[in-house]
Design a protein that fits this description.
Elements: H1 3-28, E1 31-34, H2 35-43, E2 50-55, E3 58-71, E4 79-91, E5 94-111, E6 116-130, H3 139-155, E7 159-160, H4 170-173, E8 176-181, E9 184-189
Antiparallel strand pairs: 1-9, 2-3, 3-4, 4-5, 5-6, 6-7, 8-9
Length: about 200
């Protein structure tokens, strides 16, 4: 084999090996959490999203029936939650279900010590209440639900990273940047001091 031919073949092999190595490094040094991942985590805990309270002195039970998660809606750096909920109102020994649809948005952040993703600082973006048969101060129901979600999500992560699986130990061993993209949250190592780390 001529020297030039051997050189070209060697160069091609080295380029292919380099490209493959870059692909492997890229896959190892990034980790994505999808909307479905967050939804599954929340749905496992949905029975804990309930609270006994009162509105205008009338006792009721707040509970959440379903949750939908949207990551990065309209290319904004937020996680949106859409919740269908029930407020069971007790009046004169009778119970009236008030159906509540809520839209909430919050800021995702990653607790590196706990290896856990949280959503905090919720704001209310939508509130629809259908309470046939019940008259009262229904507008305060949304505030009650906001308090329920805020207090719960402050102490319960929406996703827990298992760093023992799939070579994910680096998620707990180095500073991370958190990038919110439509449909997913991507973690990457933070090598540049100018980047914003996961908190």
């Amino acid at each position: 084999m001529k020297r030039t031919t051997w050189f070209k073949a060697t160069l091609i092999v080295l380029i292919l090996l380099y490209c493959n190595a870059c692909s492997v490094i890229s896959s190892v040094t990034s980790y994505s959490v999808t909307e479905q991942d967050i939804e599954q985590g929340l749905l496992k805990q949905i029975d804990q999203l309930s609270e006994k309270t009162s509105v205008a002195g009338i006792p009721l039970l707040l509970s959440v029936e379903s949750l939908d998660v949207i990551v990065g809606p309209d290319n904004r750096s937020v996680v949106a939650l859409q919740a269908d909920a029930i407020a069971s109102v007790s009046v004169f020994g009778l119970r009236y279900p008030a159906r509540v649809k809520l839209g909430l948005e919050g800021e995702p952040y990653y607790n590196q010590q706990e290896k856990a993703l949280y959503v905090r600082s919720l704001t209310l973006t939508r509130s629809e209440i259908d309470a046939a048969g019940f008259k009262g101060n229904l507008t305060s129901l949304a505030d009650r639900y906001m308090g329920l979600f805020n207090s719960y999500l402050a102490t319960h992560p929406v996703y827990q990273v298992d760093s023992a699986k799939g070579g994910l130990a680096w998620l707990s061993n180095m500073p991370l940047s958190l990038d919110i993209r439509p449909g997913k949250i991507v973690f990457t190592p933070r090598f540049n001091d100018g980047e914003t780390p996961a908190k």
